[in-house]
Amino acid sequence: MNFSSKYLERAVEEISNLPGIGKKTALRLALHLLRKERGEVASLSESLLALKEKVNECSQCGNLSDHSICEICANPARNEELICVVEDVRDVMAIENTGQYRGLYHVLGGVISPMEGIGPAELNIASLVSRVDQKPPHEIIFGLGTTMEGETTTFYLYKKLAGFDIRLSAIARGIAVGDQLEYADEVTLARSITNRVPYESSLSHDQNSKA
Amino acid sequence: MNFSSKYLERAVEEISNLPGIGKKTALRLALHLLRKERGEVASLSESLLALKEKVNECSQCGNLSDHSICEICANPARNEELICVVEDVRDVMAIENTGQYRGLYHVLGGVISPMEGIGPAELNIASLVSRVDQKPPHEIIFGLGTTMEGETTTFYLYKKLAGFDIRLSAIARGIAVGDQLEYADEVTLARSITNRVPYESSLSHDQNSKA
To answer: pTM here?
Structure first.
């Protein structure tokens, strides 16, 4: 591209470094910002810097927080006997949005993926083991995705934690609520039959059934 | 969404104000920035602010520039007798990329669109008329898009400029280079026949045929 302004060129370059944003989209965004008030652009600019400077990982669970211990870990009303292991902070947000879980979390920061060069050492696995060692909970729920990498990571964690006297469980796989059986894939359908549950516990959750 | 950090929430809010970026994409971008070095985030943040503070419109043609007069207007090698009117700085960039145009530009900053509340007063039309009045060029090329709004704007400009002793032309519409006739729409095909050109001038451009 043939830029008439080096500041525009630099901004387009920086914006297009973001994942999934090409040069044309970056140019469109830069021209949009140029039409905005200075205050609005300054607000965006500051929020990005504050994000990097003020947000850190909770020293206990790895969730993102503005403090050294996140709000969930610091909340005395949460059930310390229950830890749900998830891949990402987005999973914490998704589970929190359900309003059905009152335990704590452990955020791995990814899943084991030899293809991308991510081994157990790159993830918050050692911190999970030492956390469990210091104060064993009653139960650990594996809440990782059903991808090849997710399943591998769950199995790795299972092996690491099997020596502790802790109940180890995995979130249920099955037909999504609202889905038709005929459109479900075979593996999911098979699992939903193998892991069938008593009818009473399949009824919709109320406040009393919170984990 | 249920954010565990107010700085993360604010950054996602700010990023999702950008056009075409929803909350989920904004969160993905914010988490990407969190994984980057502080210097990289600072560089992006500064480039956005510099964009707003250092880039302005050329006082003659409306193109974006780091100076009060843009590089194209300031270049004595450009043909001052030729002004191409375009909608947007992206059109300037596209024409400059062809390397086939040596005249000047006038950037309207949009097209007349009553639906979006954009009338002639919102565009750089008065500045075009006074520019032409002060120093009439030999020719003005209308280089606006073929949308309803583009055609309306071109007609409006034509009415405004018809009183001057200036040649008024429009960029050629026709079958794109590399396209098959059978796939062209009827209007384009009809125009390409009506506005046919002598065979010699349809041959591929060389350096001598530059405008």
So the answer is: 0.81
